Amino acid sequence: MTPAARLSRPPLERMLRIHEELRRGALTNCTKLTELLEVSRKTVVRDIAFMRDRLDLPIEYDAQIQAYRYTHPVNAFPTVQVTEGELMALLVARRALEQYEGTPFHRQLKIAFEKLTGGLKDRISFSPAEELGSVSFKNIGLGKADVAVFNALSGAVLRQHAVEFDYRKPGEKKAARRKVEPYHLSHRENLWYLVGLDGERTGLRTFALPRIAAVRVMNKTFQRPRDFSPEKFFANAFGVLGGEGNHVVVVRFDATVADHIRERVWHESQEMRELAGGVLELTLRLGALPEVERWVLGWGAHAEVVAPAELRERLRASAATLSRMYK
């Protein structure tokens, strides 16, 4: 077995193997178990202590035969209680990771899930037919990202090491080299973003991972400010991009789409008001307008911006452009 395989063996799987050896009366000592499980003596001793002290299994060390044994027969290993709700949660997690199939993250997510559930394999089975019929996920526009870029940046965020990388702004062909103190990774609207302090610019910046390349983790370390909060950073953003503005956005949706608006939380600041004729009024407090402008356009003639005037004018200009385009 390779070192990676040894590391991936879950503790519960080891204990089940120890239980089987003890149950059938085999000579069970640390030397044999370290070879059988391919772990250290310290790990074996810790597992046995857990089985005896936490799971109340009748294990004792017999000095005469220099081995562990059960003091009385034990047929079944103590069951890990998994409720129906927890089973459904596992099923949802299993299906959720499938949406990443074909992306660089799928293999790592699959391995992580198998590690988490490996010890339950004798009690839980996933039937493909039942699985497909119970839960499904569908995301449109799932973001692309290089797993090597993600791993390098996530490690730098955790260890608080500065990084440098090539970054291409939207719509530009050439990338520029950036030096950044990486504070946070955020998955928003199906895409990964890095939030960090750009050494050549003022304030925090947001970088989309698909536009990052040639990452180098530097020896230079930094101290992330204690008052940094990703929730606060994204608080006035409708999606990803916040701003210094203080816009109170009011949009009215007709009865055709009002239910679709009611059914979701679009932003932490949202307030809804029911109007005559099934019309729904949504109020948001945002720092920038471009993202909410694109969102309102997606609802077509079913949505009307009441305020601010700046957003109404932007939408009027977009509508005029669309009208010319589709003549």
Automatic annotation (TrEMBL):
InterPro entries: CBASS_pafABC_assoc_protein, WCX_dom, WH-like_DNA-bd_sf, WYL_dom. Residues 247-321 form the WCX domain. It comes from the Bacteria. Pfam families: WCX, WYL. Residues 149-217 form the WYL domain. This is Transcriptional regulator. It comes from Horticoccus luteus. The lineage of its organism: Bacteria, Pseudomonadati, Verrucomicrobiota, Opitutia, Opitutales.
